[in-house]
Amino acid sequence: MSTGDAKRQALVIVFTGHGKGKTTAALGVILRAWGRGMRVAVLQFMKARTSNYGEERAAKKLGIEMIPLGEGFTWRSEDIEKDKAAARECWELARQKIDSGQYDIVVLDEMAYPLSYGWIPVEEVVDALRRRPKGLHVIITGRDAPQELIDFADLVTEMREVKHPYRKGIKAQPGIDF
Amino acid sequence: MSTGDAKRQALVIVFTGHGKGKTTAALGVILRAWGRGMRVAVLQFMKARTSNYGEERAAKKLGIEMIPLGEGFTWRSEDIEKDKAAARECWELARQKIDSGQYDIVVLDEMAYPLSYGWIPVEEVVDALRRRPKGLHVIITGRDAPQELIDFADLVTEMREVKHPYRKGIKAQPGIDF
Hints:
Oligomer: homodimer
CATH architecture of chain A: 3-Layer(aba) Sandwich
Number of helices of chain A: 6
Strand content of chain A: 15-25%
Structural class of chain A: alpha/beta
Shape of chain A: globular
Helix content of chain A: 25-40%
């Protein structure tokens, strides 16, 4: 993007909070961006490599790069050191994508979890965001985003749970939840 | 959808609040649903018929029915009676879409505005939702969703503004905001 275009400014966006809609909002941005022919990468920190959710099916059809990195590592506490190492490895890949200069938008889906656990140092992330290629939007989702990240971000929305169907015993719905 | 499938249950979803991400989250659901081959209609209560935003370009390419209904009628107060009539007309079309049985998901984007203004009676909307075809998910977005709608809905998230780039003087960004 040209530096002369005053209207264009790359944003760091954080969707956090305990309500539904964080990843979903990131997917909505992707749809818009795809509609405009922008180059998008989505790194999914919590999605198993074997999953085949609605968003993955859509991404495949649309030619959007969507990379499921994790095996839900933050839910498995049998071997925390292994989980920490996995989180670091995911972050290294994310940093490569950010630095590559090949994208208009990079989504770090559910990265707030390993950040809030301290498995990925937030200073490192903020530093990488600060040095990122000009014009690159970065979206980070997940509960409990650390304050340092919120302080650095341009746009932060907290998705607050008002009502959740799981509380009524309704299961996650295909096409809606995944 | 078969009534015997206990896992499937149609939801009424409300994305409300003053933060960014309401329409965007609805678009994310659409992307997932499209990935699964579901039938989706999006009625945009506040989008001008002449607009050509990222989501509209994407919808056109994907074959998703996206209908911009309004001309931003709630922002023009020169002739409130005319705006009210326009809102009613939009709601009639929305009700036809809901009743048609031709969709898996109907999105009523930014309908919370005319509802909160009292231009569309909320009892009528809740009644139409209650009688809707089995298996139809309905998503309603917009600030200040009325309490009656929240009471009836299955899933409600409030998008709370923590930080907004407009406050720093940053303009809306193509691919991100529209």
